[in-house]
Amino acid sequence: MKKILLITFSAILILVMPGCVNPPPAATPSPTQTTAAPTVTVSPAPAATGTEAAGNVFKTGLGSDISIVKSASASKDAEGKNVDALAQTDCLMAAVTLDANNRIIGIQMDSAQVKINFDSAGKLTTDVKNLPKTKVELGDNYGMKKASSIGKEWYEQIDALGKWMVGKTVDEVLAMKTYKKDDAHLNVPQEPDLTSSVTISVEGFLNSVKKAAASAKDFNITPVGNTKTGIGTDISIAKSKSAGKDAEGKDAAALGQADIIMASVTVDDNGKIIGVIIDNAQVKVNIDATGKLATDTAVAPKTKVELGDAYGMKQASSIKKEWYEQAAALGQWMAGKTIDQVLAMKTYKKDDTHPNVPQEPDLTSSVTVSVEGYLNAVKKAVANAK
């Protein structure tokens, strides 16, 4: 009897010994970098989805790279015709899902190129009721395919770029080999897997991925099945206005304002949100009453999260919470819910500028911003998730 018990006990020990568990898959070796790049829909990593991610850690991140350098004063063209002043915001963005080893297991990237025009007297000539679309949303209408040397539209190229990143660590992605094609394309991929699919310059997207990874958060929610990653936006230029007089009767420059709300989500096979990050780029470009650019375009705009306490909401807040604190609280409330549960949030109208303030018991002491734009961005992100 003792021999039988010993044999049985030994068999049990062998079955449960930790050394018998298969190790996680090894990371892809880092490629050699030739030209250092500064710092979409994409399929998830086939070998690191669901509970297979290292340490069962799923970090959700959101990063952006914003520029207004293409903004310009009113001018004359070669034929002497008037050319409107331009307030242009280029907002590149990346949503990522990372495992415990900083390996990308899901990613989507997009770009919002928002253009607002003014005449030589500073009068707004763009219809602010129009809702700008991202390059992915524009699809074939963006029009890159005709001019592309590889016959690929923009959304196809960003999709290919993201697929190349999946399964790699962030450091491996940032070590991408690139080359300078011309002054407008400083960092075009030179990786063998990308030369036939991506001809756009990638420095802004690499910077966005770097930022997304640096700020990624684990919401400690276990997914059911595989994970999917999505990005969504809500964009408005409604606050733009012509040059005129301020409340004191003084001359006031025209304003080209792009409000770009971004949301990054990680969802599971049941549609449950296991991570969500929200941010907002409120980009302002001024044009004076002569159509001259009045904003330093060399200064890269920051998002509200990047501004942190410098955004200045806390002093005026009835709950003494800064914008980034309120956005974090809103995202934490969404985590663990389905998108239908999120969109069923109870809200109330505080005033004309705050038509949808949360009335949920878990949010009344932490969120006083109006949330309609954030809900729309998250809704799109979930719908886009792959």
How is this structure best described in words?
By secondary structure, the protein is an alpha+beta fold. 21% of the residues lie in helices and 25% in strands. It has nine helices and 15 strands. It has a four-stranded antiparallel beta sheet with strand order 5-4-1-8, covered by helices on one side. Strand 14 and strand 15 (357-358) form a beta hairpin. Mean pLDDT is 89; it is low at 1-52.
- Class based on secondary structure composition and strand pairing: alpha+beta
What spatial form do the alpha-carbon principal axes imply? globular
Radius of gyration over C-alpha positions, nearest whole angstrom = 24 Å
Q: How much helicity do the residues have?
A: 10-25%
How many beta-strand elements? 15
Q: Quick check: average pLDDT?
A: 89
List the helices and strands and how they pair.
Elements: H1 2-16, E1 59-67, E2 75-76, E3 82-83, E4 85-98, E5 104-118, H2 135-138, H3 154-165, H4 170-174, E6 178-179, E7 188-189, H5 203-214, E8 217-218, E9 227-236, E10 244-245, E11 251-252, E12 254-268, E13 273-287, H6 304-307, H7 323-334, H8 339-343, E14 347-348, E15 357-358, H9 372-384
Antiparallel strand pairs: 1-4, 1-8, 2-3, 4-5, 6-7, 9-12, 10-11, 12-13, 14-15
